[in-house]
Amino acid sequence: MTFQGIEKANEIVKASLEKVIAQHEGIGLQVAAYLNGDLAIDTWAGLADEGTGRLVDGDTLFNVFSVAKAVTATALHIQAERGLVDYDEKISTYWPEFGVHGKDKATVRHALTHCAGVPQMPEGVLPEHICDWDRMCADIANLEPMFPIGEKLAYHSITFGWIIGEIVCRTDPARRTLNQFVQEEICAPLNIPDLWMGIPDSVVPRVAKLTNANAGGPPIPEGSVTALSMPAAVSLTPETMERPEVRRATVAGVGGIFTARSEARFWAMLAQGGELDGVRILSKDRVNSFITPSDLDGQVDPVLSAVLPISSGGYWLGSDHLRVYSVKNPRAICHPGAGGSLGWADIDNNIAVAICLNRMYNAKGLDDDPIYYVTEEIRRALGVL
Prior knowledge:
- The chain folds into 2 domains: 241 residues, 3-Layer(aba) Sandwich (Beta-lactamase), CATH 3.40.710.10; 105 residues, no CATH class.
- Strands 3-2-1-15-14-13-12 form a 7-stranded antiparallel β-sheet, sandwiched between helices. Strands 4-7-5 form a 3-stranded antiparallel β-sheet. Strands 6-16 form a two-stranded parallel ribbon.
- The chain is an alpha+beta fold.
- The protein has 14 helices and 16 strands.
């Protein structure tokens, strides 16, 4: 197949979005995709707010949850590119307070690949706590490892953001916040206007309202690793994530609020080997190294109860895992977000895709997954089936 042109590509994908909306009432979606460094798909459909009838447009912002981890990891890779971070160095070298309770063995690479031993959130954590960066970093630094460091993959569902983000902040000569670092070192050079981890007041009216289609499902077993990693008090639901203070805070593991257009441009930089429109963020060799699976590839993660395709760079890889099956290529780097958000960079085919939606739903299989259908149509439109 070959690319059918921008107009036809957008027509194909728009039709897929409208079909999904017809089957899933109240959903709003955005899709953007780059091919060979150029924006090839930029379309949307549905409701940004079911209560008011506000429609999605190209500037609607969406909670994308853990897709933010890809941006946070990239911020760390920028520091490594500059010689300010060594992946195999102990975290405590950059953040001395982290090296207690045996965590002095944990390296930056361990944190990137979810085997630093602390997937659990601090005991008694509340929404107001996750809005306080310094408090969360102090509490996480004082955690005792749940698993042997470097030996057990345990998805750091929320703690990933503070661990990786604090390494970035501690090694930044300007001592910027992570959100400021991302804005100045990724967004500004690449002309990306809407890649937020902590939104300003000015964009609040553009944020889509979440619908939790997972509500009413079976509760997470109390005391399980999953429950400790994602406590009910700070659950990834509208009740937590739509709180004004949470939206404005830097919650770097799960707090991304992006447009598909901006997110796709971020992935396009990676799909192009670290460079876009003449602006180089990372070296090609470094980006190519991200497609290497982590050393613990094949282990069953106790948090998500599955084998996670974690790359050595902190991203996920395309695999048969349901959350990223849509990516297809096992050499593509990607990241899913709670409820169905997804973005990826396929270096082999030079495509980058971002899918944002506001109806949170964890599909139980491919036939049950509206996003899988959309991604197949994206590939067809781009000519890369």
